[in-house]
Write a structure and sequence with these properties.
The complex is a heterodimer. By secondary structure, chain A is an alpha+beta fold. Chain A folds into two domains: 4-56, no CATH class; 75-160, Cytochrome c-like domain (Cytochrome Bc1 Complex, Chain D, domain 2, Orthogonal Bundle). Chain A is built from five helices and three strands, in the order E-H-E-H-E-H-H-H. Chain A has helices at 12-17, 39-42, 75-82, 119-127, 149-160, and strands at residues 6-10, 26-30, 62-64. Chain A is globular, with a radius of gyration of 17 Å. Chain A starts with 5 loop residues before the first strand and ends with a helix. Chain B is mostly helical. Chain B has a single domain (31-312), classed as Cytochrome Bc1 Complex, Chain D, domain 2, CATH 1.10.760. In chain B, a hairpin with a 6-residue loop joins strand 3 (132-133) and strand 4. In chain B, helix 7 (192-205) packs across helix 10. Classes of the chains: A alpha+beta, B mainly alpha. Chains A and B meet through helix 2, strand 3 and helix 4 of A and helix 1, strand 2, helix 9 and helix 10 of B. Strand 3 (62-64) of chain A pairs antiparallel with strand 2 (22-25) of chain B, so a sheet runs across the interface.
Chain lengths: 163, 319
């Protein structure tokens, strides 16, 4: 149940793909759910600052994924991920199971489990929502490595507890 | 289910290639660099009509009063109702710190006041038409950047750059000198300011960062006008009129600005929360975004000092 220590590398290959030469191999440790994501790690994604190499990184390609059953998620861990602004931050936009006061931007998911949504649909929605709506205001959790496969399964297990 | 998925991306699945069990799709038709709406942005506060359709309810204090009286809920007014209505003196000591700094002499007896008059008498109204093009450098320049330049060149001080407390306090004081003036940043005459506005607008709508969000993801409907838990995101029109703003008890980790947020410090704060790379204050891109936001408040009046967390919470009862 402890937050997994994620070692993310600003890998040379990532920056090379964006056309930045001479990228330095750097390892920065960050534990999701604790502090804001370090600015150095954010350089691996497109950015506003024209003087930085990240300015030239294009939008990531849409990833279409297939869900491998069974769900085997940990709902308790999923709740921690979903209800933490430094981690999944799902509750910023959605009402979630358990009555924590969530946002009103996205659909109310507090009884999502009762709808029995197809799991491959939910998995794709979380992994890369652009497959359904290219202009959706929802993080592309899987594609941008905000959450890993097991994290998403845990969040899904948590969502399914909402009846 | 499979059918729904294929329906959504039928045109692109053919181009899929599998990497580590994940299909990466070369799908230009469903991959967007920008969120929609750039083309509707105009450099005037009334441009909100094309976004939230609430402008008539908050276009001036009388309209806000009338809407409140009619029992409109906060989100029906684009959350503009509690933003400018009442001045807040919560940050008065910060203003006083800025005023003192303005008049403070260096060891050669020079101060900001040496050129700009006691308390900045000659700077009244300057904030309302900033950013401006500095005629000497030819660059679009925001007030914090001009403060740095003046401090370095005239006062020999290098401790007042854009990311310092002193700079922010001075910017707050200079902003206050324009309180009540109508904002008017000329971004329609061809030139560096117009270019800056257009670059800033594009940056504002560009998807970036870990979440793949744009500023506009939160600051255009449907997000604007809805609740992000305790936060009340609004459209990008008008809000620049109250910056720099007193933001107690919130401040960014590693910063000590007396809880005052300049516009670029606010942008940085938004970037941090939205997991975007945080730009350097005073840098070209941050300046362009500031130009866009200030010009989007054209026609509205500067309202300084106000407070982000105003003690008046009567809007809560109406939600």
């Amino acid at each position: 149940m402890k937050p997994m220590l994620i070692r993310m590398a600003v890998a040379g290959s990532l920056l090379l793909a964006a056309g930045a030469a001479g990228a330095q191999e750097k390892k920065i440790e960050w534990v999701p759910g604790t502090t804001p994501m370090p600015n150095e790690l954010l350089k691996q994604y497109p950015c506003h600052s024209v003087e930085e190499a990240c300015y030239n990184i294009p939008a990531p390609d849409v990833q279409v994924v297939s869900f491998k059953p069974p769900l085997n998620g940990d709902a308790e861990r999923g709740s921690k991920i979903a209800n933490n602004i430094r981690w999944g931050n799902c509750f910023a936009c959605h009402s979630l199971p358990g009555g924590v006061s969530g946002g009103t931007v996205g659909p109310d998911l507090s009884k999502y489990g009762a709808q029995e949504p197809p799991l491959d649909y939910v998995y794709q929605r979380i992994w890369d929502t652009r497959a359904f709506n290219p202009d959706a205001h929802m993080p592309i959790y899987g594609t941008n490595r905000v959450l890993a496969d097991q994290d998403i399964r845990d969040v899904m297990a948590y969502l399914m507890t909402g009846k | 289910m499979k059918g729904r998925l294929l329906l959504g991306c039928g045109s692109v699945v053919a181009a899929a290639l599998t990497v580590f069990g994940v299909a990466a799709v070369a799908a230009d038709e469903i991959k967007r660099e920008y969120v929609p709406g750039r083309e509707n942005a105009i450099p005037h506060v009334s441009g909100d009509r094309k976004f939230s359709d609430t402008f008539e309810k908050w276009k001036d204090p009388a309209a806000i009063m009338a809407a409140k009286k009619a029992g409109l809920k906060s989100h029906e007014m684009n959350f503009k109702d509690f933003r400018w209505m009442e001045k807040s003196l919560d940050g008065e000591f910060a203003l006083e710190e800025g005023r003192k700094l303005f008049n403070e002499s260096n060891d050669k007896g020079q101060s900001c006041a040496s050129c700009h008059g006691q308390d900045g008498e000659t700077l009244k109204g300057v904030h309302a038409t900033s950013p401006k093009v500095n005629p000497r450098t030819g660059k679009v320049t925001v007030i914090p950047t001009q403060i740095r330049t003046c401090a370095e060149e005239r006062l020999g001080r290098t401790d007042l750059h854009e990311e310092t407390r002193g700079n922010t306090m001075l910017a707050y004081w200079i902003g206050y000198l324009s309180d009540g003036q109508e904002i008017n940043v000329d971004v329609t005459t061809p030139g560096p300011l117009k270019d800056s506005y257009e670059r800033g607008r594009d940056l504002y709508f560009r998807r970036v960062g870990n979440f793949h969000f744009a500023c506009a993801s939160c600051h255009t409907p449907p997000t604007a006008g809805n609740y992000l838990r305790g936060q009340r995101p609004t459209t990008f029109f008008g809000d620049a009129s109250q910056y720099p703003i007193y933001h107690f008890p919130y401040q960014l980790e590693g910063h000590n600005r007396g809880y005052v947020f300049t516009l670029q410090h606010q942008i940085k704060s938004c970037q941090m929360l939205s997991r975007m790379y945080q730009g350097k204050e005073g840098s070209p891109s941050m300046t362009d975004i500031e130009t866009f936001l200030m010009a989007s408040s054209n026609g509205y009046k500067v309202s300084i000092p106000t407070s982000e967390y105003n003690m008046n919470t009567d809007y809560l009862g109406r939600e």
